[in-house]
Amino acid sequence: MGAVRVYLGLASKGRDIPPQALATAREAIESAFPVPAEVIRADEWHGGGVSLFGWSNEPDDSRLPRLLHLDGGRIVGVNGHLADPADVSRLPDDSIGGAFSAWIARDGELTASTAINRVCPVFYAETPDLHIVGSRALLVHLLAQRADRIDFDVLALQTMVRQGFFLSDETPYKGVSALRPSTTIAIRGGSRTISETPLPVAGSAPDSPRLKRAAIGELAEALLATVEPLRNAPEPVNLALTGGRDTRILAALLHAAKVPFRVTTNGLDTHPDVILARRIAAALKVEHTVIAPPQTAAKDAVLVEHPLERAWETLRTCEGMTSAYESIVGYLPYSAKPTMSGQSGETLRAGSLNLLQTDLGDKALLRRINNTFYKDEKLFTAEANEHARELAKPWQARENRLEALDHIYIWYKVGRWQASARAGALRRGDPVRPFLDNRVARAALSLDQGWRLSEEVIYTLILRFAPQLREVPIEGKPWRFTDGLKKRWPWSHVPPPSMPTQKSGGGWSWRTSPGPDLTAVLREQVLGSLDALAPIVNPDEVRALFADPVVKKPGTAWHLYTVAAMLTGLYPGKRPEGLEQITVSRPDPGR
């Protein structure tokens, strides 16, 4: 599939692009591309008033389309991948398959386009002389700056402290914005236009088995198209399989598409994940490997990396758009081995925000929207809260609350959080993510949110692709649509009862139970940075947050720590050195 590709387009408002801008682009890439400098390959194209740069850590240009691809009279770059590389000639076209953004240059013209979930982002800014468009926000900012410094949009960072990612089209950098989903930015003759295609409006839920099958057909075809190129992969796809919903549909999908694959599961033989994955593998006749967790003596404490090292790597990889609370996949050399996991499967089930709801009443759904945008108001300044409320208004105004929460998931949870966090994994290669595919997302969003939320859609797809899985239970909660469902005729089918999730016992995490020593390190950094944080947080409330020996809201503490470290200049810059590891004690060592 691929790896990280970085693109930068420059379009002059006058005649020529200043030579200094070209030199800055070549120098700045080492700060903006989170891989070792020695593995970066570069290509660039220059025409009348337009330049397009491309960089990659792919070892060669064998993956199609090439880094900068000549297509007729234009130069095309693809960040991400196309389901069919021949579709490069159709770009920009948000109806084709793949997870990508498109970059196109010719004399006097530069365009960049996002797909439906903007999981391959486009950022843009302008100066008096230039329009700047790029796939890394920091790179765009460094090109837009007159001085060699970073100017942060501190007010925009209120959402980072609140949620750990962006619930807006803002970035940490002044003047740099993220392009919306299914949107094209075009600069012609020095003038910029932005055109957006709205997300699909879902049709009504079908009310007969025949209509249901027909409605699911487009989604099934889109899913099959995502794995079609894998039939010719040099080795079988490795699928991480659990007892849950999202990886099960991928196993069924690979089976239906006749793509060679094997599955691996982490856990002990007695765990439901292993038991159910073994049954799935046997039913589909595929190789199954169980990776048992290391059996270590019970520990009362663990040693962890210093938070400043963790924050530096997260800022470097995710550009200040993901909290160091998250565990970002570390760098490893590029590998072409095809791997697959169930990331973003919630797209087929109306999004994670709807899935969190037990009450689907209008007031409860509106409360979910409000809490998503402006929870923990006491912690924030009046200006930060007002900013958050303004961001929420367009979503509050939507009459269809299920649709609003579904689209918030696509716009922000996928389009900002995952787009940022997945940069870590992409450095190693490009894991196959069928649920992120442009056609799949478009087909899913076209189906009624309530119907998708019932899980009947994903269940029907599993049996459509692999009817052999009909009697294999699901782990955890029962399928939602089975509530009250009874066998009406001898030939009718009711899914088997679910297998309860097994509590692992003792599965504490040092991130969520930070202990006094780690809390002290987080506290010192945050309280020492209150002047920088002052525009968005209330100092007394921050002090109260850290008043106890062990912080009670570790997620918020990490979000604050990440933003504080960024605002006080941790990155760009050299990796911190000489920091001692921190001891985190288990809160209940007797258990």
Automatic annotation (TrEMBL):
It holds the Pfam family Asn_synthase. Residues 219-454 form the Asparagine synthetase domain. This is Asparagine synthase-related protein.
